[in-house]
Amino acid sequence: TLTDITDGKAILLKHPHGDARDFDSVSYARVIAMSNESLLALLNECLSRCDEYRGIGLQSCLLRFASIVFNAKLTRAVDEANILPPSQNGFHPTYRTNNNIFILRTLIKQARAHGKTLYVAFVDISNAFASMNHASLWLKL
Questions:
Q1: Could you report the average pLDDT of every consecutive run of 10 residues in the chain (141 residues)?
Q2: Which of 42, 97, 115, 134 has the fewest beta carbons under 10 Å from its own?
Q3: Closest CA to 100 of 128, 127, 74, 122
Q4: Which of 60, 57, 58, 65 is nearest to 36 (CA)?
């Protein structure tokens, strides 16, 4: 809807992103400058041909903008329907990292109080591709 497009532009303006221009050479400034009606028509056209595209992690500004609009709309729908349980705090925009620390400390205390073993795994994927040849990775993508 036009409201979704307006909300998406507001998110871009509030949280500026670096330009990720792709073969289309479209920048975020250009996306914001487009009329809401034109953007809506373009995104609807892309949605109508969804089976011809596949999402990838590296996106052009226009595709990233579409992702922002869809994520905002999905988040709003999930919030309004109240279908996301509080335990999924990583997906609640108002929750913070210290929520997870509190939950972990509580689980540890409960396990100790009941004489149970608690297994915890911390996975850091920030350097998952550090030793890989990045040129080869880009070629495969």
A1: 87 72 70 88 74 53 76 83 76 70 88 93 67 68 59
A2: 115
A3: 122
A4: 65
Are the C-beta atoms of residues 36 and 69 closer than 8 Å to each other?
Answer: no
Three-class DSSP category at 140: helix
User: What separation in angstroms does the CA of 80 have from each of 9, 42, 75, 77?
Assistant: 21, 27, 9, 5
Residue type, 44: N
Mapped onto helix, strand or coil, the DSSP state of residue 109 is helix
H-run or E-run covering 7: helix 2-14
Burial class (CB in 10 A: 0-12, 13-18, 19+), 75: middle
Predicted structure pTM score: 0.47
The confidence score (pLDDT) of residue 5 equals: 87
In 11-134, at which residue ranges do the beta strands (DSSP E only) sit?
Answer: none
Please give the pLDDT value at position 109: 93
- The beta strands (E) that lie in the chain are given as none
